Amino acid sequence: MSDAVVVGVDGSASGLNAVAVAAREAHLRAAPLRIVHACDRPPPFLPPGAEPWPPLDPVLEPMVQGVLARAEERAYEAAPDIDVFRSVVTGEPLEVLEVESRSAALAVVGGRGQSAFAGLLLGSTAVQLAAHGRCPLMVVRGRPAPDGPVLLAVDGSPAGEAAVEFALTEAALRDVPLVALHVWNTWSARAQESPGDPPLAVVSDVDHLRDVEQRLLDETVARHRPNRPNPPQVAVERRLVRSRIRPALIDASREAQLMVVGARGRGGFTGLLLGSVGQALLHHAHCPVTVVRGKE
């Protein structure tokens, strides 16, 4: 289902909360909502022309359909006017959601699970999904500020360009301001051309570096507009903060209703598809976090 919002459910309270958030996202986009429950693993080999996932075990079907029915009810409570479709897929949750993300506008998951999606955010699974999914991934966690802005973590990297457009679009859809936050410190400078921070980075002109980082923030935001027909004007606050990056972003998330971050920013190692900042936010932010991958 192209351009749908996809949400993974498992019957947990966290999963139902994710359904409500996903339903509101679908409403904002005038898009359908697809509720997906994953069960068990697919066989290692499939004959030519076979369905990608085998049928559901008949013993489990009544329980799973109950999970989906409760999720659908929650979706209509949150957004009565949307189209809701539900699906049971036999397969490993990460693989199922990765496949679903290939045709989705947005994938949504809860912060904790209890069955098929149990542990989704308690280890490498969430990192893998955020890094390898084909659409933005929204992780529903924390206690978002209902009237707060959309918070964008600006890093100025080519990989982060897609996150800027996504954040502007989210702010436009929600009719709230965007806070574009760029956190810098003396390690922001590059003393040599190499991946990651060099062993020693000595900055003698802090004022010059601050000007450079301010220009990076200004230019990054100025290059983008909301990805909507006749996009509305979005009030943008450009906030430059000298601090440690991860703690500053986590603290700023207290005032936001949504945080948006790119999958990998400046200093990221080649092949590392989700940087340490994104990982920290997935686990510690005080509001939902959306990880946006750049174009391949």
Structure write-up:
34% of the residues lie in helices and 19% in strands. By secondary structure, it is α/β, with parallel strands linked by helices. It has a 10-stranded mixed beta sheet, with helices on both faces. Strand 4 (104-110), helix 4 (124-132) and strand 5 (137-140) form a beta-alpha-beta unit. The protein is elongated, with a radius of gyration of 20 Å. The two termini are 22 Å apart. Residues 118-124, 190-200 and 267-273 have low confidence and may be disordered.
Can you summarize this structure?
The protein has 296 residues and is α/β, with parallel strands linked by helices. The protein has eight helices and ten strands.
Mean pLDDT: 81
What is the distance, rounded to the nearest whole angstrom, between the alpha carbons of the first and last residues? 22 Å
Low-confidence stretches: 118-124, 190-200, 267-273
Number of helices: 8
What is the rounded Rg?
A: 20 Å
* Quaternary status: single chain
Order of helices and strands: EHEHEHEHEEHEHEHEHE
Number of DSSP E strands: 10
Q: Judging from the principal axes of the Cα atoms, what is the shape? A: elongated
Beta percentage is: 15-25%
The structural class is alpha/beta
Helix proportion = 25-40%
Largest sheet: 10 strands, mixed
Strand order of the largest sheet: 3-2-1-4-5-10-9-6-7-8
